[in-house]
Amino acid sequence: MQVTTAAAARAYTRAVVREQWESAVRTAREADVIDLLLVVSELVTNAIRHGDGLAGFDVTPALGGVRITVQDNSDVVPDPAYGSGALPAVHQGSGYGWPLIIRLARDITIERRPRGGKTISLLVPLRAADRHVPGAEQPA
């Protein structure tokens, strides 16, 4: 699927979770899916706004979560990408994306592409939701 906007990336990511990660006996915790979609929004928006355009986007179910891969056309690696995840001390209107990504994702790698640009890959953990089984209520 050709993804060109953050909204399209979120929709595609949610579809991959539903169709490939979830099953008849496992659904993802909604809070984890919200975190996943926030990370996707931040990465794709950064590629569009600061990375000279989105060059590629992929979502792959993985052990323990979902791997997100975003490619852009800029060789510049943002300084906060290697930061601690601390939020900016002073509200500047921006600068919150990478700290959020660092806090919500694991196994973050940034590699320069041979023909220019970079690839950012990371894992966003997903946990299975507790399933309510009808008739399994505990007596009061």
TrEMBL record:
Keyword Transferase: yes
Annotated Histidine kinase/HSP90-like ATPase domain residues: 12-118
Signal peptide limits: none
Domain of life, per lineage: Bacteria
Record keywords: ATP-binding, Kinase, Nucleotide-binding, Serine/threonine-protein kinase, Transferase
InterPro entries: Anti-sigma-factor_SerPK, HATPase_C_sf, HATPase_dom
Presence of keyword Electron transport: no
Gene Ontology MF term list: ATP binding
Protein's name in the database: ATP-binding protein
Species of provenance: Streptomyces spinosisporus
